[in-house]
Amino acid sequence: MKEYKVKSEDVRHFSLTLNEREIGRLQYEKWFSFKAEMIVEGTNVYKIEPKGFWGTTIELKHNDQVLLNFKMNWNGNIIIHSKLDGTEKDFVLKHKGILKESYVLLNKEEEDLLVIRPAFKWNKFNYDYDIFTTDRFDTYSFHTILLLTTIHCVNYYMTMLSTGTV
Predict the structure, then answer these.
(1) 37 within 8 A of 23, measured Cβ to Cβ
(2) From residue 111, how far is each of 2, 93, 106, 157 by CA, in Å?
(3) 57-74 burial, b for 16+ CB within 10 Å, e for fewer?
(4) End-to-end CA distance of the chain
(5) Cα 46 to the chain's mean position, in Å?
(6) Contacts of 103 (CB under 8 A, 6+ apart)
(7) From first to last of its 166 residues, what are the pLDDT tens digits of the chain?
(8) What is the largest CA-CA distance in the chain?
C-alpha cells in the first residue's frame, strides 16, 4: 500500500507526489473548466476535454488518441473506461460518507483499488487530497495516469455537486 498526496496550488493547479517527489500535475485551463492538461513524470502531456454538445463525457487524449473516458451515471458514480495498456478496463469511482467524506475506486470485480480523502484548506479555499492505494492498484502500468484521472473525477464530482447537478 502506498500513500500519495495531491496539493492544490490554487483552484487550477494540482501536484501529485509520492514520498515528497512530484510525479504528476493536473492543470485546468480556467476555474470551473473541465478542460485540463495532465503532465506525468514531467514529460508526458495528456489533454483532458469534454466531448459532445453537453460535454457529459470527458476524454483523456495523447496525440489525439483517446486513451480513457469517463462520465457520471444516474446514481452519481463515475464510470471510467480505459484503453491505457492496450486492453479495455472499466473502473467505478464512488462517493462515500458525509461526515468522513471519501471516494473509492473499484475495478470490474468490485475490489477496492484506492481511497481518496479530500481535506478542505480554508486558506486556499480549495482541497488537497490524500490517496491510499492497494497493492493491486500498484500493479497497473498506468497507475499515475489513473491517479490524476481520479483527482479530475473528484473535482468534476464536487463541481457537479456545487452546481446542484448530482
Answers:
(1) no
(2) 16, 12, 5, 21
(3) ebbbbbeeeebbbbbbee
(4) 31
(5) 13
(6) 93, 94, 95, 96, 115, 116, 118, 150, 153, 154, 157
(7) 899 999 998 888 999 999 999 999 999 988 767 899 999 987 899 999 998 766 679 999 999 999 999 998 888 899 999 999 889 999 999 999 876 789 999 999 999 999 999 988 877 778 899 999 999 998 999 999 999 999 999 988 887 665 555 5
(8) 42
